[in-house]
């Protein structure tokens, strides 16, 4: 596998590249070639790496390490048969070379045989005193298998080898989070911080765990320690801002978001959060200013367009809201939240056909909330598509069988179709579940409620409430 090139190979690399530009042939020892090849592989310069391997093997045809690098390139290029043939030859020469097992494991992994890859990596561990890279590969194989417990243990081993291996530390926390073991993550990070008290990364991750558990004061302290450890750590300021928002300290949150802008170039996410804070503070013009900055900074950030949509929706400026929700949908056309918002906006301006389509899309993309079914049925009712409204409510009832609101709406639509028996059955069932919707039902369906049967029901409930 490719390793980080040290400072030492800078001269061989310069010499090698000079050789490529001339007809001269320079001699390098095999270790120089290894460093040159590692340098090119680490920088994604595969063509130059292949040239260095070819020339290296011409000068050192028996160099096993160079052949292993050739195999690594074969695996990268999916030339698995060539790689396996070379490995077979090398294993006869050096059957205790752990790199042979590592490359075989890479081939198994490419073939989606992750158990086979893990077995080979375990053999490689038995042959080396330095298992850092092997444990990292093991962790990735376990992640491929969704075995987050074993992946977590493997990445923990990497952190034991190198406590500044933040990539592995992030992977450990990722596994804790996937397992929803936030308490375990907190214990692990606190133990890590006992040994590394100035690790801004660990403090930042600890703060995020406390945030997940809604332990906002603890999260605030953790982010403060992250900032003490590195006062230019943008992530800590941003996360601290989110905590302050949760605590209702919007001006302090704005200060932290603005700090991220002063440290580096402004981001759309920072502008969005600042806008949200001003909105909470009632600073409508400032909120609008930052929301527009959000989409100017990143026109593809659908959440920015949604924020502007919500802003105008709350002001009941539905035409503007409709314009901006279409922007969000153009960016993420399969987001049920955006389609539902579109449905509500179009219903508010009585564009019932557009609202019908929007609610259908919302449901098709996975939004099964109670009010989605009720609103979708409502726009069909307004279009006098009573049978469609009944079909929608019947489907919604499968998701919300104990909700009286759906039953009241079914009763009302059956009454509008003239099916009084079904209307009576549904309103009776609704009243058994919850009579709180009765007053609204009277307002929505006055003709049915004026019938003698419903008048008797209403009189009965009026007496019962005395």
From TrEMBL:
Which UniProt key words apply to this protein?
Coiled coil, TPR repeat
Q: Which SUPFAM superfamilies match?
A: HCP-like, TPR-like
Q: Which residues form a coiled coil?
A: 66-100
Q: Does the keyword Coiled coil apply?
A: yes
Give the top-rank taxon of the lineage listed in the UniProt record for this protein. Bacteria
Q: Which InterPro entries match?
A: TPR-like_helical_dom_sf, TPR_rpt
The molecule here is called Tetratricopeptide repeat-containing protein
């Amino acid at each position: 596998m490719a390793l980080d090139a040290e400072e030492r190979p800078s001269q061989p690399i310069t010499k090698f590249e000079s050789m490529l530009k001339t007809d001269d042939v320079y001699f390098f020892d095999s270790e120089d070639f290894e460093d040159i090849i590692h340098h090119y592989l680490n920088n994604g310069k595969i063509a130059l790496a292949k040239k260095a391997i070819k020339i290296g093997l011409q000068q050192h045809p028996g160099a096993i390490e160079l052949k292993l690098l050739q195999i690594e390139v074969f695996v990268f290029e999916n030339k698995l048969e060539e790689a396996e043939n070379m490995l077979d030859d090398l294993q006869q020469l050096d059957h205790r070379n752990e790199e042979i097992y590592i490359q075989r494991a890479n081939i198994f992994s490419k073939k989606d045989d992750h158990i086979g890859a893990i077995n080979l990596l375990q053999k490689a561990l038995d042959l080396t005193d330095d298992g850092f890279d092997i444990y990292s590969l093991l962790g990735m194989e376990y992640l491929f298998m969704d075995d987050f417990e074993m992946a977590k243990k493997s990445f923990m081993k990497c952190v034991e080898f190198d406590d500044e291996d933040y990539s592995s530390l992030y992977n450990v926390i990722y596994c804790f989070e996937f397992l929803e073991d936030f308490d375990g993550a907190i214990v692990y990070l606190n133990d890590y911080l006992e040994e590394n008290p100035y690790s801004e990364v660990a403090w930042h991750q600890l703060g995020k765990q406390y945030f997940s558990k809604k332990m906002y004061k603890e999260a605030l302290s953790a982010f403060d320690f992250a900032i003490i450890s590195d006062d230019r750590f943008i992530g800590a300021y941003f996360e601290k801002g989110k905590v302050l928002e949760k605590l209702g300290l919007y001006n302090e949150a704005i200060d932290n978001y603005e700090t991220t802008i002063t440290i580096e170039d402004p981001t759309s996410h920072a502008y969005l959060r600042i806008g949200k804070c001003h909105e909470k503070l009632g600073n409508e013009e400032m909120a609008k200013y930052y929301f527009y900055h959000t989409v100017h900074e990143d026109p593809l950030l659908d959440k920015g367009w949604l924020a502007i949509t919500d802003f105008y929706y709350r002001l009941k400026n539905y035409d503007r809201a409709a314009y901006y929700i279409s922007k969000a949908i153009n960016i993420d056309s399969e987001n049920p939240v955006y389609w539902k918002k579109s449905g509500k906006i179009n219903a508010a301006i009585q564009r019932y056909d557009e609202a019908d389509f929007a609610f259908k899309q919302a449901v098709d993309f996975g939004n099964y909330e109670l009010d989605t079914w009720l609103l979708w049925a409502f726009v069909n009712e307004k279009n006098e598509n009573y049978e469609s409204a009944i079909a929608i409510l019947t489907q919604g009832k499968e998701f919300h069988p104990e909700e009286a609101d759906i039953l009241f709406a079914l009763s009302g639509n059956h009454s509008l179709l003239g099916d009084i028996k079904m209307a009576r059955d549904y309103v009776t069932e609704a009243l058994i579940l919850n009579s709180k919707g009765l007053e609204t039902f009277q307002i929505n369906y006055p003709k049915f409620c004026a019938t003698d049967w419903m008048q008797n029901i209403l009189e009965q409930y009026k007496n019962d409430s005395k």
